[in-house]
Write a structure and sequence with these properties.
heterodimer; A: 278 residues; 73% helix; B: 457 residues; six-stranded parallel beta sheet; 18 helices; elongated
């Protein structure tokens, strides 16, 4: 029965993870309510599941990896709600709720994990995983491109449209307004984030079926991918909470692009997640 | 009908040839324009005419039946100005030069601010008034349509009008480069001078939202606020409110900077780094230039705006060279078309002659054909007409081409081969076309207008 409660908790954490982004980044009251209710219920079912799981095992000490993962997820979610209640630190949910969901996702699939009904279904999920991550990369490239154009246009306007010796600003007359470039850069980032999240979750579903199991998550590229996801969250959070825009936001997008390129480059060092690998 | 071919004459004064005092005396307002055009049309020898009257020019364009007709006399008589006073300031163009001048005017190449868009509308208005007054028909109508087409081409194929050249419009352009759409943007007028009023008007026309006005003299601020349906801000609340504005236009008489970097930091903090645009048109300046170093704040003073306007003007001058070449090309095309129109009677005569031959031959063999049903007769008619048309087609094209090229020798040979002749005036037109002035022989008579239109098609 504990597995059922854990699955219910996983679904509710997923809903809360989705709701926390508009709640924090756009200050949407309706999404905040959804986040609180879904997260609160998830925590409750998670608690029931954990108690039942340990009671059934006739011990209070978690031994198996899945038990540890589940309890760790419960601790993360519990601390988050405590911090929210005490310090109104709602923004922590951007990291805590998706992390909790990722932690209990594999245990909620049961001891045997999830087995795809056919190779075709598995391939479809693999395609979705690759497509989602590629779209995230493309969105990031667009964001960086818009940021570079922003810097050029800003420099033009700051220099009073006076070209430097031997150059011509007239060549850049086609550049869109600063506000438009800023919007493109930000919207691309926001569009890329859910794509990256979905891509990583699908990746986790795919890997739990392989014999590699948890060792898969020790691969440098996989670790870097999850770290880059956290950096992505921080980037969005900083942009929104600090009102970061313009030149600094453009530099930050550029820096994140470097991080993503580095993750891509880690392909060279990866043993289990390498392009061209069987 | 006159013995002489119609001539196109353009007479006028503009900002380059006459001082404002003189232009004021000959200016015709829109209400008086129809009457003035009719008076000009009533002059002996004037076949068609129109008058373009703007603040920078008054021009009479007329198609006259003799070289002796001088529309300048209309100006002297109409406005009671001695020829010795107005004469030295007048310019007069005929035929090809008149066409070229009209095309240049419509394309805004002869304007005070090259590339300004209003002149085309003003010429179109003048044409509409003349048409309503019944003083333009085939010749001038075709000429004006070609002028509008040339102007449109100049505007679309060159960048002559793409950059603003006035300080107020440069400020609006810059605001658009920063904010994109100006809809809903808040504009704060600090100081309520004429220049800031003009800039604010431009911004409002582009959709700017709330207008805030602050001035040491409250009456002036109230007047401005009322003008733009805005809100008066007491001068003491200047720094509290400035942070809410996206665009700040300053024009106070303060001897020191009103806005300094520390204010900029506070505004940006309040605005969560949303950009601000300061248009400083005060002398001495109201905004510390160091504010421009702050990220998100853009400061342009009068000199900056003037420099941008000057660079745009230079760009327009460069584009004007391309536009002049385009106008010359359009003038050539206009003349080519005119020459084609001139051979219309010859083509009509050729068609008539061929039709007579066809009908004669049909009549001749009618008895030998015996009794034909209506369908059979129609088939024979269609067959013979089709054959004649196909046979004539290359010859008609050859005549049109010779006319377009101004090749009168070839034109004569073709006409002679068909034993057809152009009217005396047409022949003269073809001859002068060859000499480079074909339009001098332009003929406008009611009976051949249809033919000319046919040939133009």
């Amino acid at each position: 029965m504990y597995l059922l409660w854990l699955r219910v908790a996983a679904i509710l954490y997923a809903a809360a993870s989705v709701a926390v982004f508009p709640a924090v980044l756009y200050n949407q009251l309706r999404w905040r309510k959804i986040c609180v209710h879904a997260g609160g219920m998830a925590l409750f079912f998670h608690f029931v599941s954990a108690v039942e799981m340990l009671a059934l095992a006739h011990r209070w000490m978690p031994i198996h990896v899945r038990e540890v993962e589940s309890l760790l997820g419960f601790a993360v979610a519990g601390l988050f709600f405590l911090a929210w209640w005490l310090y109104d630190a709602e923004f922590l949910g951007l990291l805590a709720l998706p992390a909790t969901f990722l932690l209990i996702f594999i245990p909620s699939l049961g001891p045997g994990g999830y087995v795809f009904p056919s190779q075709g279904v598995r391939t479809s999920w693999l395609i979705a995983h690759i497509a989602a991550l590629l779209v995230a990369y493309v969105a990031l490239v667009f964001s960086v491109l818009a940021s570079i154009l922003y810097l050029v246009q800003e420099r033009r306007l700051k220099s009073k449209l006076k070209p430097k010796q031997g150059s011509s600003w007239g060549f850049f007359d086609w550049l869109p307004p600063l506000d438009t470039l800023e919007r493109i850069a930000h919207a691309s980032l926001e569009f890329g984030f859910p794509c990256m999240t979905v891509g990583l979750i699908i990746g986790a579903v795919l890997v739990q079926e392989t014999p590699l199991g948890a060792s898969y998550f020790l691969d440098p590229k996989v670790i870097a991918s999850f770290i880059s996801w956290f950096v992505y969250v921080l980037l969005l959070l900083v942009r929104r909470s600090a009102g970061l825009r313009g030149r600094k936001a453009a530099y930050l997008s550029g820096a994140f692009m470097v991080v993503m390129v580095a993750v891509w480059a880690l392909n060279l060092f990866s043993r289990v997640h390498k392009f061209g690998a069987p | 009908m006159s013995k002489h071919a119609p001539t196109l004459v353009l007479v006028g004064v503009n900002h380059k040839t006459a001082p404002l005092e003189l232009r004021e005396r000959v200016a015709i307002n829109r209400d008086e324009l129809p009457e003035a055009i009719r008076a000009l049309a009533a002059m002996p020898g004037v076949l068609e005419c129109l008058i373009v009257s703007t603040c920078n020019r008054v021009e009479l364009l007329a198609s006259v039946d003799s070289h002796d007709v001088d529309p300048a006399e209309f100006l002297f008589r109409q406005f009671g100005i001695e020829p010795s006073v107005l004469g030295p300031h007048l310019y007069q163009h005929r035929d090809r030069d008149a066409v070229r001048h009209l095309f240049r005017v419509a394309s805004s190449l002869d304007s005070m601010v090259v590339g300004e868009p209003q002149i085309l509308g003003q010429v179109k208005d003048a044409f509409a008034v003349a048409r309503a007054a019944g003083t333009v028909s085939g010749h001038l109508e075709h000429l004006l349509q070609c002028a509008f087409s040339a102007a449109k081409k100049v505007r679309s194929e060159t960048h002559i009008g793409s950059n603003s050249v006035s300080i107020a419009s440069v400020a609006v352009d810059l605001a658009r480069k920063i904010f994109g759409s100006l809809h809903g943007r808040t504009v704060f007028l600090v100081g309520a001078g004429k220049m800031s009023e003009l800039a604010a008007r431009h911004l409002v026309e582009q959709g700017a939202g709330a207008i805030l006005v602050s001035n040491r003299t409250i009456e002036r601020a109230e007047y401005m606020a009322e003008e733009f349906d805005g809100r008066v801000i007491p001068f003491q609340q200047l720094y509290d409110v400035a942070g809410d504005a996206d665009i700040v236009i300053t024009s106070t008489g303060a001897p020191h900077f009103i806005f300094r970097p520390e204010h900029g930091h506070a505004f940006l903090h309040k605005r969560r780094n949303r950009p601000m645009f300061f248009i400083d048109i005060a002398v001495p300046r109201d905004v510390d230039p160091a504010m421009n170093n702050l990220e998100g704040i853009f400061v342009y003073d009068v000199d900056d705006l003037q420099q941008v306007a000057a660079s745009h003007m230079q760009e327009r001058s460069r584009q004007a060279l391309d536009a002049e070449a385009l106008v010359d090309l359009e003038v050539d095309r206009f003349h080519q078309r005119q020459r084609t129109v001139n051979v219309a009677p010859a083509i009509v005569a050729m068609q008539k002659q061929a039709e007579e031959i066809r009908l004669g031959e049909l009549h001749r063999i009618h008895a030998r054909l015996g009794t034909l049903t209506a369908e059979q007769l129609a088939a024979v008619e269609a067959l013979t007409r089709g054959m004649v048309n196909k046979f004539l087609h290359p010859h008609m094209q050859a005549i049109k081409k010779a006319a377009r090229d101004g090749d009168s020798a070839r034109l004569d040979a073709l006409c002679e081969a068909w034993s057809v002749h152009m009217s005396a005036e047409k022949e003269q037109a073809a001859a002068t076309a060859n000499a480079g002035e074909p339009e001098a022989a332009e003929q406008r008579t009611p009976h051949n207008h249809e033919n000319q239109l046919e040939a133009r098609r």
